[in-house]
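Task: sequence design from structure.
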């Protein structure tokens, strides 16, 4: 029997909180509700969760602060922010705090469910937090958990997006990492803007790998990218 996905919901509006909790339970998720940021942090630390939904505007501790504190211990559990504001600065703040996505109130329950399922699908493409994932790529060693790429006399700490792209390239090394799959796994959507963003990160990875001429990331036209390793 498949284990139920456990969700921690932090929402200070008691009516909305109970409504969301009941809806998620009806959809097959085990859901715990916390009514402010402090309670949310305590609940998170005393149990294990597969998904976090954090309201941004909460008393005691706002959603961004809570997410940043959670990310000190846990880099992987997906976080979805609920915000009453649609300001661009807020969304950027949320991603900086380690969020995976955000929704602006009011929203439909169906949209919330679709977002949760999309984020869970893409997080499943990447390793679990406690999985040891290391690759040797020519002269380089890549450690996914430490977000580190190194070779003799060289070491770089990768950003989260660089790290996840590097993982998918290594997992498919000498084979094709499909563009759409990588975009959905890492960005959650294969739209044009995310595609341009991915191209920027691929260019950064090429720079990091330039010390070994035998290692190369090549474009496969219309399909994706291939990490060539001898």
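Answer:
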């Amino acid at each position: 029997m498949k284990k139920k996905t456990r969700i921690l919901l932090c929402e200070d509006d008691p009516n909305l909180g109970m409504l969301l909790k009941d809806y998620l339970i009806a959809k097959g998720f085990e859901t715990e509700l916390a009514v402010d940021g402090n309670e949310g942090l305590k609940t998170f630390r005393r149990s294990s969760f597969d998904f976090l939904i954090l309201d941004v505007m909460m008393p005691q501790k706002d959603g961004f602060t809570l997410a940043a504190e959670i990310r000190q211990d846990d880099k992987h559990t997906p976080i979805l922010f609920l915000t009453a504001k649609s300001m661009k600065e807020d969304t950027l703040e949320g991603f900086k705090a380690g969020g995976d996505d955000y929704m602006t109130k009011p929203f439909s329950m169906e949209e919330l469910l679709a977002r949760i399922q999309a984020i869970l699908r893409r997080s499943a493409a990447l390793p679990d937090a406690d999985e040891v994932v290391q690759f040797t790529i020519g002269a380089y060693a890549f450690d996914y958990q430490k977000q580190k790429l190194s070779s003799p006399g060289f070491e770089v700490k990768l950003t989260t997006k660089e790290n996840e792209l590097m993982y998918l390239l290594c997992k498919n090394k000498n084979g094709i990492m499909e563009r759409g799959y990588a975009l959905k796994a890492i960005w959650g959507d294969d739209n044009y803007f995310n595609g341009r963003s991915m191209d920027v990160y691929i260019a950064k990875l090429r720079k990091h790998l330039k010390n070994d001429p035998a290692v190369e990331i090549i474009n496969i036209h219309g399909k994706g990218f291939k990490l060539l390793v001898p």
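The helical segments are 14-26, 37-46, 63-73, 88-96, 109-124, 160-171, 179-186, 192-208.
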